[in-house]
Amino acid sequence: MLTPKNRGRIIVVILTLVAAATILGTAAAQKASVPKPQDKLAMGEGEVKQLLLLMNTDSKGQVSKQEYMKFMEAEFEHLDKNKKGELNVKELTKSDLTASRFVGK
User: What is the total count of domains within the chain?
Assistant: First the structure.
């Protein structure tokens, strides 16, 4: 027969195990919801493909150095608001270089 003292100990042990399982379950769920580094790369792949299509002006399916440089020169001009031929940190951080910015142009 269990004494009141032993019952109290068993209850404390059970409560401790339940609390530990709850904490571990919550930690596992949080860890599962964090995207893996390779997932971040995959998430941006669609936008990169769209940008490559915009750069590929001759429609050969590949971007030449000339096409790439022409596209980047246009982006530089877009960012160089004061037309000094140089970009500072403030100008560079204002870059919104995404394919969606060019849609409809």
Answer: 1
